[in-house]
Amino acid sequence: MELVSRQDPHLREVVWFAVCCRALTLLLQASLLDFNPLFFFQALFNLLIPDHAADAFHPPRLSEPGLWDLLLERLLGGLSRWDAEHFLFIAERGYLYEHNCAFFPLYPLSVRAVAEGALWPLQRLLRLRSRLLLSAVLLNSLFSVLAAAALYKLGCVVLQCRRVAFLAALLFSVSPANVFMAAAYSESMFAFLAFSAMWQLEKGQSWLSGLLFSLASGVRANGLINAGFFLYSRGKCFALQLQVGSGSVRKLPPLWKQLLSVASSAVLMCAGIFLPFVLFQYYAYVRFCGPGTGPEQAVPRPLLQLALHKGYRLAARNGVKPPWCSQRFPVVYSYIQDAYWNVGFLRYFELRQIPNFLLALPVTLLGSWAAWTYITANPWHCVTLGLERRKSEEEGKPRAGFCCPAVFVYVVHATVLLAFGFFCMHVQVLTRFLGSSSPILYWFSAHLLQEHEPLLRSEGTDNQTAAPRSQRSLLGKSPGSCGKGTSENPVVRLLMNCRLITPLSKCVLGFFLSYWLLGLILHCNFLPWT
Predict the structure, then answer these.
(1) What's the CA gap between 193 and 150, in Å, rounded?
(2) Maximum pairwise Cα distance, the chain
(3) Rounded to an integer, what distance in angstroms lies between the CA atom of residue 122 and that of residue 109?
(4) What one-character-per-residue DSSP string does 28-75 give?
(5) Which of 218, 377, 448, 524 has the smallest count of CB within 10 Å of its CB?
(6) Mean local confidence (pLDDT), 369-395
(7) What residues have CB less than 8 Å from 508, skipping those under 6 apart?
(8) Cβ of 3: how many Cβ atoms within 10 Å?
(9) How confident is the prediction for the chain on average, in pLDDT?
(10) Where are the domains of the chain?
(11) 3-state secondary structure string, 242-295?
(12) Quick one: CA torsion of 277, 280, 284, 285, rounded to 10 degrees?
């Protein structure tokens, strides 16, 4: 998908930096190899912070691990904590328990395919569960690198500012949600599919974009919201066509044909995006609400005992159907979120959850600040929903950077996710929720660094992208802020000069790097994290 180009040094640096960050992540969470220069710190982490006895899903291992299994568990076991247990269990056993259906199938299917395919030669050394863990780590390493490249490409098209797009893609590699991009979670796969779909839609590749959005909705439930990008794109094209000059009206088809074309394409594309979700809900209904066939006899006894001990519901066990089966629209996903995790509007607003709200405070402030910055810079554009043709567009000189008109739909998308997550979800997941679903977190952070950090504004101005003088005065841009610039890594440059950077830059980088490191320390030791 043209993600890697030999002619773009910025893209090469993005890919190289992403690979290095992923390797460093794996190195930091490992705790066995003697030649690991960070072994002392890992031993200290494990000594000071032993594995927390969390009340989380932890199915029993049904086969004795071999020497190589134990070695792999010591190296990568920190990446199989919390929800990763669900994904690995589904990849190994399928949807045995009802609450497993909260996790969508495309990612565990991909993990199983790689474990049975590319890693098949290792079956004599590693049991299936170990190969699944190795498969998940390899897949997520690949997807996280590709997601960084896709974000860079998307930023170049949307922002029309290569330097901000470059910086944003580099920030993605040190994302506050880093540990979930590395662990056996679906965040990396979803980010890659979502960013790639957005990029293809911006390029006008509607059908390829629809396919990628559809695959994304088979990875995570919030992929359904991405249908809004396509609806907005079709609606905007239709609205702008109605505003063309009278001399061009004759060249356009009749209004009813335009309406029919827009409506049909929107219905087909949205149907494709919703199809994986609908099929998965139907699968769950057939499995858990269909007539019982005695599946409990085929379930290993330790897994049956776990179900009895924890209250997990098996498929149609003893002919007793779950309550959601009798609902008018039997959607297992919403039932699980409600019954198992108490997810709902304002349900998390309790005094004992204050630490989790504090954990989500940085990303909440950053997301809210991004929305406010965009609205204040483009009030009329926001009022008209970006459906009014602007003079700058007619002249072929659109504004560049974070506050450009093309960013509007992405700001709306991020704001909807932020509001929904803050009021209706376990608020601590906001960091990885936004970090894997929206480019705004990275674009706005890059915008702040580029606009307010003298070390970045002082870079060379060769091959600048021209910008109107009114735009520079409104956004406070320096003359070279949207030039092609150099391919030198600005994140490394800022870190190497950390004593010289502004307090705002320290706050932004401090948020990214502290969550990057703390996530590894806490999550890999089974301690609560975002």
Answers:
(1) 9
(2) 77
(3) 19
(4) HH----TT-TTHHHHHHHHHHSPPP---S--PPP-S---HHHHHHHHH
(5) 377
(6) 83
(7) 445, 448, 449
(8) 18
(9) 85
(10) 9-41+58-245+253-283+348-453+508-525
(11) CCCCHHHHCCCCCHHHHHHHHHHHHHHHHHHHHHHHHHHHHHHHHHHHCCCCCH
(12) 70
Stretch 336-364: mean pLDDT, rounded?
93
Section 53-74 average pLDDT? 83
- Does pLDDT of 343 surpass 80? yes
pTM of the full structure: 0.88
Q: pLDDT class for 228, splitting at 50, 70, 90? A: very high
Q: What angle do CA 196, 202, 433 make, to 5 degrees?
A: 45
Type of residue found at 421: G
- The confidence score (pLDDT) of residue 359 equals 93
- pLDDT tens digits, 274-303: 999 999 999 999 999 887 544 445 788 899
Both tokens of 280, joined, read: 């998965």
Which candidate, 445, 473, 438, 422, places its Cα nearest to that of 370? Answer: 445
Distance (Å, whole) CA 183 – CA 79 = 4
What is the residue type of 492?
V
DSSP states of 281-343:
HHHHHHHHHS----GGGGS-HHHHHHHHHHTPPBTTGGGPPPGGGGSSS--HHHHHHHHTT--
**Are 511 and 174 spatial neighbours (Cβ–Cβ below 8 Å)?**
no
Q: How many of the other CB atoms lie within 10 Å of CB of 308?
A: 10
DSSP structure string for 192-240: HHHHHHHHHHHTT-HHHHHHHHHHHHTT-GGGGGGHHHHHHHHHHHHHH
Quote the CA–CA distance of 302 and 299 in Å, as a whole number: 8
| The predicted structure's pLDDT at residue 460 | 42
Is residue 28 very low, low, confident or very high in pLDDT (cuts 50, 70, 90)?
confident
The total number of residues shown for the chain amounts to 530
